[in-house]
Amino acid sequence: MSTYFPSGKGLADGRKWYVVDAKDKTVGRLATEVARILSGKNNPAWTPFMDMGDHCVVINARHARFTGSKNDQKMYRHHTLFPGGLKEFTVKEMFEKKPERVIELAVKGMLPKSKLGRAMAKKLKVYADAEHRHTAQRPEAIEI
Fold first, then answer.
1. What is the tens place of the pLDDT at every residue in 83-93?
2. C-alpha–C-alpha distance, residues 33 and 27, integer Å
């Protein structure tokens, strides 16, 4: 009996495409499932040091939701590298301006902080509404 061990050849050719509808889904629970798809942990041949994941398209990001009082209390921060350049946004402000960014940040926070994690994050596509540009890849719909 031999053990199957995946080589790095042909991984990009065998990747599947999935589409996930974020309408009325909690952001954190949605992000964990999308991160599992991107990292390949739902794949039986998962290997920790290889990018075994599939592509994931998230639609209706504008209609995802946070529970509790996170709409007013959760803050997104970044610094412009200029003196006094700390910018802060609440979740409500971020959903109005860039709803895709909220989902992207939640998923990227659950991926490894390495070259492998950055490669996994490139396979994530998030759209604010129901239309997306990836119909040619024939993505499978997944219910989360």
1. 999 999 999 99
2. 10
